[in-house]
Design goal:
Blueprint (H helix, E strand, L loop, with lengths): L1 H10 L8 H26 L2 H6 L4 H8 L3 H22 L5 H21 L2 H5 L1 H26 L5
């Protein structure tokens, strides 16, 4: 019975009824991006010394503590845009779509910066995997908002 209900709810897409996958994606997006904002705040407050005290190498701490301003702005755009976009999605507002697009652009810029500024080289494969996952989730949230907009679930 529960499986039938979830399937029925997941396939509805009329303006009046919102499928469960929409709420799950929007809720996940809000939690994921809230954690991203927490990570951003931590990065803003971190010093070279605090990073070394956390156990990373001096070279890694030097890399992270000398981010160019444009990378900090890209990180802010990605995280804050994702959080606002997720909140707008939960409120069923079409404005979520362009906000998610800006968030994704911020994350893509950050990814490029991690390549060009040596962050991936300093932190290794784990950083590549983490930021790749972040970009993939930003793409997914943009896709969800586009699909919801097209189906009339958000206005």
């Amino acid at each position: 019975m529960l499986a039938e209900t979830l399937h029925t709810q997941s396939t509805r897409g009329t303006a009046g009824q919102v499928p469960i996958w929409f709420w799950l994606a929007a809720g996940f997006g809000l939690l994921w991006n809230a954690y991203g904002v927490f990570q951003f705040a931590h990065a803003l407050l971190a010093t070279r010394e605090s990073l070394v005290a956390m156990g990373i190498s001096e070279m890694q701490a030097d890399t992270l503590s000398t981010y160019p301003m444009w990378m900090t702005l890209a990180f802010a755009t990605g995280t804050l845009g994702g959080l606002v976009g997720s909140a707008l999605l939960l409120l069923r507002r079409r404005l979520a779509l362009p906000v998610f697009a800006v968030s994704l652009a911020g994350y893509v810029a950050l990814y490029i910066g991690d390549i060009t500024e040596g962050v991936f080289a300093a932190l290794g494969p784990a950083q590549v995997v983490i930021l790749s996952l972040v970009v993939a989730i930003a793409c997914l949230l943009l896709w969800v908002s586009a699909r919801a907009s097209k189906a009339g679930m958000i206005s």
